[in-house]
Structures are given as structure tokens and as C-alpha cells.
Write a structure and sequence with these properties.
The complex is a heterodimer. Chain A is built from no helices and 11 strands. Chain A is mainly beta. Helices cover 0% and strands 48% of the residues of chain B. Chain B is built from no helices and 11 strands. The chains are: A mainly beta, B mainly beta.
């Protein structure tokens, strides 16, 4: 069973601060997706990374996929209260006919105004 | 642009009752997935369909759980003889075969078993 570990589990910061959350595994994934989830709602896709070493930017969010495709990071610059939520990483398993996502437990981010 | 929809959004039932949830995927997506999410955890994969074929069901939690996608469009997830431990958020996602296989999630059905 492939496992994804996210850290930190909880993060509370002041508006305007920068932060990085991590997603690590001992397994290789064919792709990795980051989602943000609000309470009582489904996960909303932020980005998909596929290539080892890939960096993608989405406004103040920067996503990186590790060279070996086993880990990823999400960096937020100048956090805003609207960034508050649960950030989930999910890896797509490799293998014929297998497309299920393996999720981490998430990082719960609170940005205090 | 219509995303993934799920119905109902909330369901309260008594232990021992059967419940059925519906998922309507993004219209051109041929893959459909069901996940379960309990408090403090990430979503956990249950099963998936490609068109009407259920290609993976070994992760369904017990034989009380079953899913169908009879015409390759919407899907239903049924839980028979519900137990309190079934209380969770049930999420549906869909994707288009080929390309990045990115999965898009619906808003979920929150189940509470009393």
C-alpha cells in the first residue's frame, strides 16, 4: 500500500506570512495532485504535476514535484485569510488499470487576519 | 460548465437501514470514482468505473457496499444494513481517460448513522 505523509498536520499563521507544506512518500507516483477542501465540501483541484522536478505556479502558490516523483511541496507567499482550508496531496498509482488516488491526511491551514 | 454533482448532500439514517447515493459526473468524463472520507483523514478510495464497467472493487469496505453505473453516465453507491461506523463523507470524482487523468470531485454526501 502506497502512503503519503503530509506535514505539518496543522499550521496557524498571520496574514502576510509565507509557508511551505510537504507531501512525502517512499513510493513513486505517475502524477501528483494538490487539492484544497473547505469544511463540508469536496476537494477542489489546485494543480496536477507529472514530471520529476516540475514547478508550477498558481498566483501566490508554488508547487514542486520531487526529481524522483516521490515527494512534493506547496509554498504560499503572503498568505491571505482566503487561503484557509485543508490542503490535500494525492498521488496517482502506477500500474495497469489502476487509477485510484492515494491521499495524505492533509495540512489544515488557518490564516489569521 | 457543469461539475460533478452528488445527491443528497446530507443523509441521516437509523442503523440497519439501507441508503443510496447518486453521482452525476462531468458529462464527457468516462471514468468515475467513489471515495470515503472520515473525520481528520484524507479521502479513501472505494471503487471506480470506466464507462459502465466496474474495474476495481476490491477496496469496497464490506459486502454491504455496492456501486453501479448502468449506462456509463451517473452512478449509485448503496450501503445496506448501515452501521454507525459508516458515518462519513462519501465523495464522487470523475476523469477523462488519457492525458493527465486529473480527478474532479463533487461536493460529497455527508452520511450520519444514528
Amino acid at each position: 500500500t502506497q502512503l503519503l505523509e503530509q506535514s505539518p498536520q496543522f499550521l496557524s499563521i498571520q496574514e502576510g506570512e509565507n509557508l511551505t507544506v510537504y507531501c512525502n512518500s517512499s513510493s513513486v507516483f505517475s502524477s501528483l495532485q494538490w487539492y484544497r477542501q473547505e469544511p463540508g465540501e469536496g476537494p477542489v483541484l489546485l494543480v496536477t504535476v507529472v514530471t520529476g522536478g516540475e514547478v508550477k505556479k498558481l498566483k501566490r502558490l508554488t508547487f514542486q514535484f520531487g526529481d524522483a516523483r516521490k515527494d512534493s511541496s506547496l509554498h504560499i507567499t503572503a498568505a491571505q485569510p482566503g487561503d484557509t482550508g485543508l490542503y490535500l496531496c494525492a498521488g496517482a498509482e502506477s500500474g495497469a488499470g489502476s487509477y485510484q488516488l492515494t491521499f495524505g491526511k492533509g495540512t489544515k491551514l488557518s490564516v489569521i487576519p | 460548465d457543469t461539475g460533478v454533482s452528488q445527491d443528497p448532500r446530507h443523509k441521516i439514517t437509523k442503523r440497519g437501514q439501507n441508503v443510496t447515493f447518486r453521482c452525476d459526473p462531468i458529462s464527457e468524463h468516462n471514468r468515475l470514482y467513489w471515495y470515503r472520507q472520515t473525520l481528520g483523514q484524507g479521502p479513501e478510495f472505494l471503487t471506480y468505473f470506466q464507462n459502465e464497467a466496474q474495474l476495481e472493487k476490491s477496496r469496497l469496505l464490506s459486502d454491504r457496499f455496492s456501486a453501479e453505473r448502468p449506462k456509463g453516465s451517473f452512478s449509485t453507491l448503496e450501503i445496506q444494513r448501515t452501521e454507525q461506523g459508516d458515518s462519513a463523507m462519501y465523495l464522487c470524482a470523475s476523469s477523462l481517460a488519457g492525458g493527465l487523468e486529473t480527478q474532479y470531485f463533487g461536493p460529497g454526501t455527508r452520511l450520519l448513522v444514528l
